[in-house]
Recover the amino acids of this structure.
């Protein structure tokens, strides 16, 4: 079974998730700068989630590039990832509309944690389908980013109840680390073709 | 006529249906755990419908894989299926926001029933277009899952008025049965290629 | 320039239009049959518009199949068609929520009229790009459906102010005529390939 | 890495942006012409933004046609463009619902300015990836449209506070200039193939 439709479906879901978050930017009643103020925290949380969904799309793109055959398990591991990503607009809006309060910030981290775990499970399914000489296994190597991100999210959840600002800083930090595209896969794929 | 555009269109509609259900997860007013409570039943109904739409996407994927030429009848049978699937976000929200009350639970089952029938009609159209030596006919075999699911939905509709919880349990049970991907088609396709 | 991206973009827009109409099916407050009653006219107008958008997608599919090269004029003629189609969810909701009142029914027809004209202009652009031996020109032939539909819509607009029900009947009648897929193009393409 | 998925994802986002703007056309309460009146300015701003998003889709289409390999930098430059485009539904609705008031009109121009800059940066990334003999560099030539549009937007922002109508006129003028498709790339690509 080809992977084109899996890619197209995932792209569709992520594209829609990115754009429906915009619907949470409620049109202000007035036409003054002050009337824009309540939109600002929602806007900031939108920027953060846009970057996260962009990272997931980007890395998903790379990971599937190293995937040959799509099995039933990969299909469901992919849907599982999309499920957690689909909750991001909800947690983004709750966090933004409540000025990054403790519980919404913690739930935002919990959904990121579950998405990170789902991404890892999908990666393992693809590696398992490729057997012992897995191209993807060599490509991800020690996978320190994939393994450390969930730990940071896990830490951010209790931290959010002490200092929501620190939890936000951790979410931003992880995003910045991931913004560097996953050149490992590009490199291994390049050497594989060479 | 190629089937790529049919697949892409169906994927697009299903991807959008899955994600607009998220819009029914209304952002709570407060920031306490108690304020999250009203979201819980809507969330649970979202999970159930996410799984159902995932199953339809997955099986649709397999079924079209066993389909060669797309006729006008197949196009319309496919749109007919998408029509019933498009009502799932509505019935999901009605059921979730009313804590799985009797009538919404029955209507949820009625839409699942119509979608199941539409899926069956689409399958028959594809088989008819393939003639006596239909690959898909051999692939689906006795098709006990496709034939028994509508019967369960049909039973769940009156049951919902007696015990909505039992109707829900039936919906969950059918979903679990379908979660096993349709290996029949994979197998027959595999042997066909061999 | 290839036509794949034009098809994919049009499919995306039509898929989204079909599904955002579902958002107008507002979740009822109660859980009784009576609470479902206000949804019924919106549902009926949804069915009509679903069929119309399905017809456009279907015929668009066929028409682009007979189109080779995509020019800038074709791109814009296609966007012009998508613009009028994009207004269908608005007119559908206005008509449905107001129980098929006169002015909303007339506006519904006006948007169908403009979409029909836009479809005709797109067809002419494709024919013009193909020169004197246009495959599409031969395929559409006298194009009695394409030419008579706008006349029916044009008649339905004033009729809606006298009898909205008659205007609706005309919209349904045109939809039924178009439900028969455009076999002309299939036939000419088939003979062209033979 | 192929560019198909980049194109498909961008098409998906732009298709969704175009269609969710329709959701801002709020269904009027009454059924008279007067009840339609408040929709008119929102409709006019919708038309303007539809044309802008159509222009971006069109030119994006052409630009990626002249792009061979997709690098990580191109992926992120593309997401950066999509981010600014994703704000257009918000600024469109704010401007339309407030009858083209000063601040919303200025913000509308600011988002167009950022989108224009993001488009330019994406173009530069693609040119940089192609080296000294860049096909795209030759295709865009002096790029007077790409360079002058941001200047007009920049001028329109302060002008909006003096005369919102003049700012609108500038937005319309730039859109009209861009409506002419980018034949430069078509020409250079054509000669390159010859």
């Amino acid at each position: 079974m080809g992977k084109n439709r899996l890619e197209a479906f995932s792209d569709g879901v992520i594209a829609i998730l990115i754009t429906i978050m915009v619907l949470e930017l409620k049109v202000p009643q007035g036409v003054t700068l002050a009337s824009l103020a309540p939109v600002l925290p929602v806007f900031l949380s939108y920027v953060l989630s846009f970057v996260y969904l962009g990272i997931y799309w980007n890395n998903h793109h790379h990971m599937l590039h190293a995937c040959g055959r799509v099995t039933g398990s990969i299909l469901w591991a992919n849907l599982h990832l999309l499920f957690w990503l689909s909750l991001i607009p909800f947690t983004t809006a709750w966090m933004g509309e409540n000025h990054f309060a403790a519980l919404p910030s913690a739930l935002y981290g919990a959904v990121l944690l579950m998405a990170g775990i789902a991404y890892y499970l999908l990666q393992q399914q693809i590696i398992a389908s490729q057997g012992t000489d897995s191209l993807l296994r060599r490509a991800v190597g020690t996978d320190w980013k994939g393994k450390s991100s969930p730990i940071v999210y896990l830490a951010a959840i209790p931290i959010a109840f002490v200092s929501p600002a620190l939890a936000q800083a951790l979410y931003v930090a992880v995003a910045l680390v991931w913004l560097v595209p996953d050149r490992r896969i590009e490199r291994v794929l390049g050497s594989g073709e060479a």
Q: What stands out?
A: The mean pLDDT of chain A is 87. Chain A has ten helices and no strands.
